[in-house]
Amino acid sequence: MTCGLNPGFFLMLFCLLHSTEETCPSVCLCISDAVSCSSSGLTKLPHSLPSFCLSLDLSHNHISWLSPGFFNKMPRLENLLMAHNQLKALTPGIFHNVSGLRHLDLSSNKLSVVEQHYFQGLWRLEELLLFNNKITRVEASTLSGLSSLKKVYFSLNQITDFPFFSIQDHSHPFLSMLDLSSNRLTHLQWEDVKALPRLVQRGLYLYNNSLICDCFMYSMFWHWDLRGYDSVKNFKEEHICSINGDPRSSIRFLKQNRFFLNCTVEKPVSQPVTVLLSNVLVSEGERVRLDCQTSLTGTDLSFTWLSPSKGYITKASIDTLISLFPNGTLEIRATKVNDSGLYVCTAVDIKQALNATREVNVTVLLPAAELFNTGYTTLLGCMVTTVIILVYLYLTPCRCSYCKRSKPYDSSGLSSVLFCSTRDQTKNQTDKHVAFIEPEHQTIKGLRIKVAI
Ligand SMILES: *[C@@H]1O[C@H](CO)[C@@H](O)[C@H](O)[C@H]1NC(C)=O
Ligand SMILES: *[C@@H]1O[C@H](CO)[C@@H](O)[C@H](O)[C@H]1NC(C)=O
Ligand SMILES: *[C@@H]1O[C@H](CO)[C@@H](O)[C@H](O)[C@H]1NC(C)=O
Ligand SMILES: *[C@@H]1O[C@H](CO)[C@@H](O)[C@H](O)[C@H]1NC(C)=O
Ligand SMILES: *[C@@H]1O[C@H](CO)[C@@H](O)[C@H](O)[C@H]1NC(C)=O
Ligand SMILES: *[C@@H]1O[C@H](CO)[C@@H](O)[C@H](O)[C@H]1NC(C)=O
Ligand SMILES: *[C@@H]1O[C@H](CO)[C@@H](O)[C@H](O)[C@H]1NC(C)=O
Q1: How many domains does one find in the chain?
Q2: Which residue spans traverse the membrane (predicted)?
Q3: Ligand 5 center from residue 337 Cα (angstroms)
Q4: Does residue 309 line the site of ligand 5, with CB under 6 A?
Q5: 267: pLDDT strictly greater than 80
Q6: Dist. CA 326 → ligand 7 center (Å)
Q7: Which residues pair with 250 in a beta bridge?
Q8: Is residue 237 part of a domain?
Q9: Are 313 and 436 found together in one domain?
Q10: Residue 31: helix, strand or coil by DSSP?
């Protein structure tokens, strides 16, 4: 055998080479499918990392650039954490071979421009964290193709303009968080913002920017506030705008809206008409209360009900049978069958010139007395049956006296009864009896015990 041609040697060599490729760098921790090299003082990427890892944590280091093709050896990578590093830009094509990425954290770096090639091909990406960088600009098609995106964080940067038009229903169907708070946005393309999918609008964070107060801006936030979006509700104090672009005269516009009183006319006329259909089922003679809860939550609401039997009902038209509470709830004290039908409540917020409606379909059933009669008949039927069974059992005492005669089984009254019934099953006549009482098993048990005592 010649040493040099030993296939085992090649295998060993291959394994050695392979294993060096797979080894865990001494500064990192490799745990099952995760590798953590965080806070390891790294100034550049480690030489080799296990190829099978799904999660790679390189955060809190001093990495300033990503060598091309570095992630090619980790095709299964799903989570890449690189927060708190020194990245100024991303190498073109760096993520080309890691299209399985779902979570990418590049927050607290030094990125200055988000170029359109940065995230190309990451169509599985769900979360993108870019907050606390030095971003001044986001190129127009940066987010295009990222069709799985759910959350994007651009907060704490210096962004002055954002390509809202690139986000549409079909391009980003799952996007529910677009955080642009604490940036330097001044004039937004409010038409583009207004055209954003509802889900994106609900999760659009714009507080602490350099917005310039104007009616269109105000009406946008006013509507979001009206709808109770968390993005607005939770940061009322931080929503600021400056009058005429002068930063010294900035106002918390969701708190002090005096400046916008003149805007009323410019508020979009499209009204949030909420139609909530519900069904109410009552028996004639019963009292019913129909609430008028709509999307309007103001304190100065006025309510009108349109009823099928009585027409319009307002505060002024209350009578003894019907009343309208200040909160819009309509009460009918004794319903009649012909009170059935569709009740429509309109809540009007006079100040904001908004109305919303609520519909309730009321069905008044036949007089309850008739229903009770049916129940009563059934009950009576049951009682009669019970009495018949009792009488039947009392009038046929022979079998039990027969039991008592057989001494060995007479240890207790109860056992004799049980024995009695098993013995009885041999007789055809008693079979009929059993069949008769079967459905009322519960009652029969009780009766038997009574008989035994
Ligand atoms: C990475 O992708 C390129 C094409 O984009 C391909 O040629 C190359 O073989 C891939 N590398 C790996 C390690 O998969
Ligand atoms: C507002 O943004 C500035 C930077 O633009 C930041 O320093 C500050 O902490 C932010 N304030 C809040 C309340 O988020
Ligand atoms: C609103 O309009 C009135 C009259 O046109 C004007 O006097 C007032 O200054 C305006 N208020 C604001 C805050 O612009
Ligand atoms: C409206 O007021 C009435 C009477 O005060 C009350 O019974 C009802 O629960 C209130 N409805 C709502 C929806 O708050
Ligand atoms: C309700 O129905 C009765 C007959 O069932 C009728 O006499 C009465 O006029 C009706 N009332 C109204 C308000 O329609
Ligand atoms: C909605 O409100 C406007 C103005 O407040 C009013 O003229 C209109 O009649 C209302 N619509 C309905 C259906 O009540
Ligand atoms: C109201 O309810 C009744 C019974 O459930 C149904 O027949 C009727 O079509 C409903 N009306 C409306 C407008 O939904």
Answers
A1: 3
A2: 375-395
A3: 8
A4: yes
A5: no
A6: 28
A7: 242
A8: yes
A9: no
A10: strand
Residues with CB under 6 A from ligand 1: 72, 75, 96-97
Residue 236 inside a domain? The answer is: yes
DSSP state, residue 8: H
Residue nearest to atom 10 of ligand 3 (CA): 262
Measure the CA–CA gap between 359 and 365, rounded to whole angstroms.
Answer: 19
Ligand with the closest atom to the CA of 158: 2
Q: What is the Cα–Cα distance from 214 to 207, expressed in whole angstroms?
A: 15
- Is residue 52, in this structure, part of any structural domain at all? yes
pTM greater than 0.90 (yes/no): no
Q: Rounded to 5, what percent of the chain is helix, strand, coil?
A: 35, 20, 50
338 lines ligand 5 (CB under 6 A): yes
How far is residue 303 from each of residues 64, 298, 314, 402, measured CA to CA in Å? 63, 12, 7, 80
Using the predicted structure, report yes or no on whether residue 83 has a pLDDT greater than 80.
Answer: yes
The response to whether residue 348 sits with its C-beta less than 6 Å from ligand 6 reads yes
Which CATH number belongs to the domain containing residue 292 in this structure?
Answer: 2.60.40.10
374 is a domain residue: no
How far is it, in rounded angstroms, from Cα 66 to Cα 43? 11
* pLDDT tens-digit map of 168-183: 888 899 999 999 999 9
Distance 225 CA to ligand 5 centre (A): 46
Q: What is the pLDDT of residue 86?
A: 96
| pLDDT band at 389; cut points 50, 70, 90 | low
Pocket of ligand 7 (CB under 6 A): 342, 361, 363
260 Cα nearest atom in ligand 3: 13
Residues 127 and 215 in one domain: yes
Length of the chain: 453
Residue 139: pLDDT over 60: yes
Distance of alpha carbon 9 from alpha carbon 16, whole angstroms: 10
Question: Do 241 and 309 share a domain, yes or no?
Answer: no
- Cα of 113 vs centre of ligand 7, distance in Å, is 59
CA separation for the pair 19, 22 (Å, rounded): 5
Please state, in angstroms and rounded to a whole number, the distance separating the CA atoms of residues 392 and 30: 82
- The DSSP call for residue 436 is H
Looking at the fold, whether 291 and 320 belong to one and the same domain comes out as: yes
